[in-house]
Design a protein that fits this description.
This is Hydroxymethylglutaryl-CoA lyase. The chain is an alpha/beta fold. It has one domain (8-298): Aldolase class I (TIM Barrel). The protein is 42% helix and 15% strand. The chain has a six-stranded parallel sheet. The protein has a two-stranded parallel ribbon with strand order 1-8. Helix 6 packs parallel to helix 7. The longest helix has 17 residues, at 117-133. It is globular. The two termini are 35 Å apart.
Amino acid sequence: MNWPEKVTIKEVGPRDGLQNEQIILPTQSKIDWIDQLSDTGLSYIEVTSFVHPKWIPQLSDAVQVAKGIKRNPSITYAALVPNERGLEAALEGEIDDISVFMSSSETHNLKNINKSISDTLPVLKKVIDGAANGGKTVRGYVSTVFGCPYEGEVSMDQVFRVCDQLFDYGISEISLGDTIGVASPRQVASFLESAVKRYDLSRIALHFHDTRGMALANVLQALECGVETFDSSLGGLGGCPYAPGASGNVATDDLIHMLHKMGIQTGIKQEKLIKAALLMQSFLEKPLPSHQMAVYNAQ
């Protein structure tokens, strides 16, 4: 098998995970958790989102969180930014890496962002240009790559049109999202077979949700295709509003367990991940849904 020797894990729990929780954690709890994540060996943590509090009240304290965390110089601290106003706040919070987001599906983009794809792109270009002027790198999220809750399967050509435009605007990396967890390994392989002819895979990350229990299988397939960067959320925090009750992002602790068992390096310390997961369990007052935490909690 042509597996890489090392993989980069981008932790999205403080943003993608907490935004789907019913409880709104105190600011200090978020800061404490991010500080503990910073001690695990992670090199990239997405700490919050600068979306209007009306839409994501769970992350309404984005600036306070960004300013309150203890910065490890070896870690990139990122945040999701939807528009120029959000960028101003992100720059105030001294975020290292700006993430912009949109959907490859027209209907999902309208539902999620309240704009068409053609109307969203100019907004993102202003954010990307502004971030570059502020000396920041920019990452792009493209959602519904493997399936849309409204339109079903999304054509690869449509996904590539969106990715091409974002790359043309100057982003450094695209994270391709299986937003509702419908991808299969065969679909992932087919997509990446085409993507590798178009893009440098070092600029591609994959963002799998585990709604149907397929996330690790899809990661394994992506590894075989040469992808070396994956998003994940500690304990499997997160979810999808289109699949109520379903599990969320692929769990960082489960992913690290698999990779380390395969002899693939990540630089992340499993025992410190568990410590950070236990802290979040205490904050949420419920078990985290990952397999690793289920085993730990049963001991």
